[in-house]
Protein 1
Amino acid sequence: MRTPEKQIVLACTIDVENDLPSITVPTLVIAGEADDFVDLAHSVEPAGRIATAALPRLPDGHGVPHVYTTAVVQTITELPA
């Protein structure tokens, strides 16, 4: 069962930094400019290590896909195939 505590432990311990440059498919990293849970740097840095990444920065905080659903869907559909 997932718990907030398990999610926090995972977020603090997983390290995929060295794998990011090997991603070659179109990749979307969505960031909320005012996210109080995930610092913007945690989106900017990985997106910068993926050559094919797009990084739309949407206003608001955590939960951007729920608040800006139309903008998120539009961004996804505009990704190259």
Protein 2
Amino acid sequence: MLIDELLLRPQRCLALASHWQTRRIRNEAGVTENPMMRPTVDELMRRAFDAPRDPTSPEYKAGVRSILNLRVGGIPVPLPYELGTAQADAYFAGQNEGHRIWRKLEEEGEV
């Protein structure tokens, strides 16, 4: 298919993108996987915080989400708290967990 044809027919582009996202392949171990689908930020947040764990503050969770938004979607989030406050400290601690979550995903080959 020519690029010009895709530009003139955007609905065809959407159909192709949908096909690519739903296509599944089998890896060497016979496990079905989808290389085009990355976990969403919301899915990663559920994995991290729906499991039993010590409670965390909203600022901490915002820090985790900020890093996952950056890694998954390339969306930088400016610091929403004033430096030197407990809220900023919790936010930075959350960012550290966000980095750990992403590194673990990379090691496991999910991203």
Protein 3
Amino acid sequence: MSAAERTYDVVVLGAGSTGENVADVVVRGGLSALLVEPELVGCECSYWACMPSKTLLRGTEVLAEARAARGDQRRGGPGPAPVLGGGYVGCEMATAWQALGSQVTVLQRGDRLLPRLEPGE
């Protein structure tokens, strides 16, 4: 029997972190669930956004801690780093590059950073 022919207790639309958690809770509760995702399970967070940028940010924290432990306060970075986009991914990348010692310029279309996260005026 194909997935289209089955009956499910719950249909979860979107396999991002929330969708995956909802489906898990449903199944652990003894119900059946269908998880629908048109692109990648885990969505952009797992593949090109949150997780990769969080990994970079943690690396810069470790580097800063190691430098502090050695009394080394050098801030030489990989050079100027333009970041295209002022959404949450761009801002996280800019933070990581700046922590490595780069002079960062965020290039954002529009009049403010994080346009989807902050309410407009």
Protein 4
Amino acid sequence: MARKSSRPHKKFLRDFSLLIKNIYIQPRVTRFFYQAKHNICLEKYQVIPAYQFINDAGKSIKKFPYKGKSKYSNLYINGIMQEGKAYKIKKKKLMIKNIGGTIYAGTPIVIEIVEFRLGYRDRSELNPKVIMEKGRK
């Protein structure tokens, strides 16, 4: 019984590497800022509406970007990153769980949302016919 080679086919690798060279991942970071107007007691669940935050351009927002599979968020209170289990971000509000302590008036609260998108250097080269033609050269 003849044994099949365990090495991948060279042509497949060449075509695949041509495809990969044209794809890149582009991160996009957005930040939202809020300054506590009064002391916030964290002995109970607290909600801060999205409209109280401003974006990087200093403009008010109505909602936070949807948090999907290719996004993640961080919450900073007074410059300290918080544990993921300590808060939830919904479209129109930040919810901080009852973790104890107090956020004092004037303390900055920052939400950072990082999104990853796929980009293509040359879309025409993603066409399988173009890949095959380049592979023949």
